[in-house]
Amino acid sequence: MNCHLALLSCAKEKGLTFDSQGEQKTLTMLDGSEVRYIAYTDIPYVTNIEDEQYQTLNFFVPEGATQKSAILLRTYVGGYMAASARNPSATDATGRALAEGLCVCIPGSRGNNSVQDGVYTGKAPRGLLDLKAAVRYLRFNDKRMAGSADRIITDGTSAGGAMSALLGATANHPDYEPYLKAMGAAQARDDVFASVCYCPITDLDHADAAYEWLYHGLRGDGEVSDALVRQFDQYINTLALRHPKTDERLTSDNYMEYLKSWLLASASRFVQEGGAIDDSLGFSFYMSFPHTPGHRPGGPRFIRAKAIKSEVASDVDMDCYLAYVVGRQALKSCPAFDNLDSPECNVFGNAEGNPAHFTGKDVSEEVRRRVQLMNPMNYISDPKSTVAAHWYIRHGASDRDTAFPIPVNLATKLMNEGKDVDFALPWNRRHEGDYNLDNLFRWIHSILSSSHK
Ligand code: DHB
Questions:
Q1: Taking the CB of residue 433, how many other CB atoms lie within 10 A of it?
Q2: Bigger pLDDT: 243 vs 311
Q3: Whose CA is closest to atom 4 on ligand 1?
Q4: pLDDT tens digit string along 60-112?
């Protein structure tokens, strides 16, 4: 703590100019290989620090990095709680990024449990503001630090996935400016190049409605659930999303088919990679022979070999499939998010630490405003925000922490705005993040090589 305090008083005197002394470190990867890097730690990213434990960032520069290297900005926010600036890990995207030559920034940020002298200082949107301030710090110091602030790639899981989505969707928007100014954030832009969002728990003000719309068949009768289902239908109709392939308007009438198309894609991919899906999950398949145009397969053995590679999911009985999902992990109760024990009510609570409801007619203007600032869906088509050009969004096909329409709508809205979006509901994945890093880093390298910065 003393070390923290010394650094912080330093920050007041010097402002936000990067002049950290680095320390040489080595990270041993899971395959035994070693990655050498320099660690710059405990760097305050605002001048009006309210919480010295969380309002700092760590920055890591691998051997061989240049001014042009990309920067992976990984947040460890979970449950909308505070997260500390950490060290890179060989088991997630931070270690992999260093091994692949990217710089890594791990900022701390306040959250729903941050307390200073009995006052809660991290209620929404404070955690997001902290992360934005960290991005501004990187841009303000771009020339003084390795890596390029024009190539920041944010990454987070769950509530952290929501933070990553918010960083990508709300950048430079004037709504956040007065708060950032008051915090003493660096005067710099906070837009990012790309956002990686694993199972983002986002669009919180519509998450209850989406949850009941998807799962009401498994709930039994209930007035609250029924009303939420109707709200979701209305929401879909007002969102005015378009089908990314056909450009058809998505409405409450065709939305379920659209959602199913993402699950079918997930199942198809899984079986095409050699997986087997039990009939009890409700999927039907047909055989397609995409690689043998005009060719009738000869014998049974040939058919079998081709068929395994080209099975395509054609339909899914949602009652069966959702029963499978919920059999793996019980549903949240109703309402799933706006109940006073949830991390969400907690993050919209007040400085005394009391949770607050955040949906419905009785919500105060003040809370309503904060809810708006925490929803990326409000900013994706707003010309005053600088939306990231590239998005990698994953939500496990077995993840019931929020309902599938939440990530589907986020991805669809971004696609409708012409963004480059790699979206999937990976088969059998639950509520988890930083998986299939081979695929993630293939994507990262592809977006980096397609840009000319
Ligand atoms: C997280 C999970 C939840 O189910 C939720 O409602 C909010 C956050 C999380 O893992 O971060």
A1: 23
A2: 243
A3: 401
A4: 999 999 999 999 999 999 999 999 999 999 999 999 999 999 999 999 999 99
Predicted pLDDT of residue 288: 76
CB atoms within 10 A of CB 245: 9
Which residues form the pocket of ligand 1, taking CB atoms under 6 Å from any ligand atom?
78-80, 158-159, 201, 343, 401
For residue 145 the two structure tokens come to 């630090």
**To test the ligand 1 pocket, which listed residue (201, 208, 333, 334) has its Cβ within 8 A of the most ligand atoms?**
201
Phi, psi of 417 (to 5 degrees): -85, 5
Q: Kindly indicate the confidence band of residue 287, based on its pLDDT and cuts at 50, 70 and 90.
A: confident
Closest Cα to atom 1, ligand 1: which residue? Answer: 79
300 Cα to the center of ligand 1, angstroms? 49
* Residue with CA nearest ligand 1 atom 7: 79
**Bridge partners, 424 (sequence order):** 394
275 domain-assigned: no
Q: Answer whether residue 351 is part of any domain.
A: no
Atom 8 of ligand 1 has which residue's CA nearest to it? 79
pLDDT score, position 14: 65
Q: What is the CATH number of the domain that holds 104?
A: 3.40.50.1820
**DSSP assigned state of 299:** S
Can you give the residue range of the structural domain that contains 36? 8-204+379-450
Instruction: Assign 300 a pLDDT band (cuts: 50, 70, 90).
Output: very low
Beta-strand runs (E) in 208-357:
283-287, 311-316
Q: b/e for 360-373, b at 16 or more Cβ within 10 A?
A: eeebeeebeebbeb
Question: 304: burial class by Cβ within 10 Å (0-12, 13-18, 19+)?
Answer: exposed
Query: Which residues are CB-contacts of 276 (< 8 A; sequence separation ≥ 6)?
Result: none
Q: Which atom of ligand 1 is nearest to the CA of 342?
A: 6
DSSP state of 335: S
- What is the atom index within ligand 1 of the atom nearest the CA of 401? 4
> What distance in angstroms lies between residue 405's CA and the mean position of ligand 1's atoms?
16
Ligand 1: nearest atom to the Cα of 207: 6
Closest-CA residue, ligand 1 atom 9, reads 79
Number of separate domains in the chain: 1
Angstrom CA distances, 8 to 4, 42, 43, stand at 6, 9, 8
Token pair recorded at residue 428: 């059998």
Domain-located, residue 18: yes
* pTM score over 0.85: yes
CA distance 432 to 400: 11
